Amino acid sequence: MNTPAALKRIAETIWELPMSYKEGMLVPARIFASEKLVEEMDAGVFEQVCNVATLPGIQRYAYCMPDGHWGYGFPIGGVAAMDPGSGVISPGGIGFDINCGMRLVLTNLSAAEVVPRLHHLVDRLFARIPTGVGCHGFVKLKQDEFRQVAEQGSRWCLKHGYATPEDLEMTEEGGCFSGADATDVSVKAIERGFNQLGTLGSGNHYCEIQVVQPNNIMDPERAEAFGLTMVPNQVVIMFHCGSRGFGHQVATDYLKLFLGVMERKYGIKIRDRELACAPFHSPEGQSYFSAMKCAVNMAFANRQVILHRIREVFSEVFNKSPDELAMRMVYDVAHNTAKLERHTVNGHTKELLVHRKGATRAFGPGAKGIPERYAKTGQPVIIGGSMETGSYLLAGMSSGADAFFTTAHGSGRTMSRHEARKLFRGDKLQHDMEQRGIYVRSDSFGGLAEEAGAAYKDIDEVVLTTEIAGLSKRVARLVPIGNIKG
Amino acid sequence: MSYQFRGDIAYSDIAFDASGETLEELFSAAAEATLKVMVEDPATVRPTEEVQVSLAEESLEMLLFEFLNELIFYKDARRLFLRPQSLEIGGDDGGACQLQGTLTGEEIDPGRHQLDTDVKAVTMMRLSVRKAVEGWQATVVLDV
């Protein structure tokens, strides 16, 4: 038990630490969790979410989602909305992997059709989607062309034959944050990223083949609206990756810049260097916001070209076109971003800068900014579990307003990567998973061990908690059968 | 010089302590730890490529931060696994700090290098460089 004595239960799945818990807190901290999840949370979560509550301009509460765990600066699962006029922007509230996110893609294939060719399919995906340390992408670009990718995101992909108009419609913000100016990005970031378009990465980044079993559909109406009921035991593809070295360098560059100006130029004192920040409307804050948008757009484009490659592989293996296989996107959600959105605080609707780090935007039915197709259902929310245990598709709810329409992003870790390596062996895990019908290819057995299911929280508990808290509603559980990771 | 990975700091990242009799040894140990995260057996990285590095920062911590970031930069930009061959670090008396040196290594070759986990960035979390009874110690958390 790491829970502070001051932690007070407000509702079944809402816990609060008061402003008196830590000097300098401007708002209380709120944690969404079941009793089991809050007991499992590490002490770092409580300290970090309260550090976030000290940031200038923060509104209502500093939040942590049910999959929250110890990060750097913000906890993973941390959410904070700032008044853009008086508040700050902090790279530590977004993360190094800017717009690390999830994409879910449909097929009209059943598990019975895919399982006989599963090894070949996974092997082909592993061969054609670059994974692992330092891999270069399959889209070869000059640096000037990469700057266009950074400014245009998925729109660049549409122009160059890697996307359909519907793909963009089914991507958060249409696959492009407007106002991205590549002159705000360092030469180093460009050099680090221009050859990585079309790469998965490593760590918890993966591409997974999953099955929608009829008994795992919790909301048949929404499941149908999201395209999950074409055939019984329908196969879908979920993948998770981000802005690669480009985004990591943007975050590193501005973390250092903010450390230099935060106190000297703006008189801002913070509790943790990882929360380095600058006033949103300062030249440094605006420059970072623009550079961050470039990284967001690169990540959207990265997932888009990977989708193009996945479609090619499925076409080759099943000898049908992507259209014949109905390989349409359900949605693409971003995890690590800051966005200007309109929300209601104390009865007044105003523009806020919402930081989400390891958290998913979850707009409810009727919300502006989601595809017309989902107006009645709410935005699809894609929650990746561990590669052993399964994932979920959920939908945003109108009742999520208190947390600025935000929900969890994954299972959340329960142990460090170092501990996981001591407890699990990648080669044994790969063998055991294959016995259970999950075929995994990876560049690294060590990396595989770090991603063992037991290193993560109970995904069922996490998503149920988001539903009880009114943040997102369960639509279907997705069971893995194949996975590639770096 | 030596390094030791830690499981008690940050769940989704990788933390390590490094030590050395001199600052040069300390920085070399931290570089070796970073390499070890990315390649299972760092001994398989041969010195076939050479890169010069020259850095100046206000503190030893920021110097270590920038030095490790250089290794991560070259890993992505030029697909190079690098380690220091020679280093010279000055200004450990509280003033400006400088580092000059030569990094050697080779292009990433999945056929010869058993790849492990990609390093995204050096974080500021718990980052410290401190004088110990004998030599120097550092703590680093890498985002992976």
UniProtKB/TrEMBL annotation, chain A:
UniProt cofactor note: Binds 2 manganese ions per subunit.
Chain residues that bind Mn(2+) 2: H240, H335
InterPro entries associated with the record: RtcB, RtcB-like_sf
Keyword terms of this UniProt record: GTP-binding, Ligase, Manganese, Metal-binding, Nucleotide-binding, RNA repair
EC number assigned by the record: 6.5.1.-
GO molecular function: GTP binding; metal ion binding; RNA ligase (ATP) activity; RNA ligase (GTP) activity
The protein's name in its UniProt record: tRNA-splicing ligase RtcB
UniProtKB/TrEMBL annotation, chain B:
Keywords: Calcium, Metal-binding, tRNA processing
Acetylation as UniProt keyword: no
Extent of the signal sequence: none
Limits of the Archease domain: 12-144
Gene3D superfamilies: Archease domain
Single GO biological process annotation from the record: tRNA processing
Coiled coil: none
Superkingdom in the source lineage: Bacteria
Pfam families: Archease
Family that this chain belongs to: Belongs to the archease family.
Name of the protein: Archease
Lineage of the organism: Bacteria, Pseudomonadati, Thermodesulfobacteriota, Desulfuromonadia, Geobacterales
